[in-house]
Amino acid sequence: MAFWHLTQKRWLDRVFLSMVLFTSQLACVSLAFFVVFLLSYMMNTPIS
């Protein structure tokens, strides 16, 4: 029972780590898209 509990905890830690990595990657990708969109918008808009 203790061994099963240990393996379950390890599996939960692995799932949590993968979720954190996925969330950070998603945030980085969305931030990069936002920066590219902002730069293209500033390039297309003439500065008055």
From TrEMBL:
Keywords: Membrane, Transmembrane, Transmembrane helix
Positions of transmembrane segments: 15-39
Top-rank taxon: Bacteria
Keyword Transmembrane helix set for record: yes
Name this polypeptide is given: Uncharacterized protein
Organism field: Erwinia amylovora ATCC BAA-2158
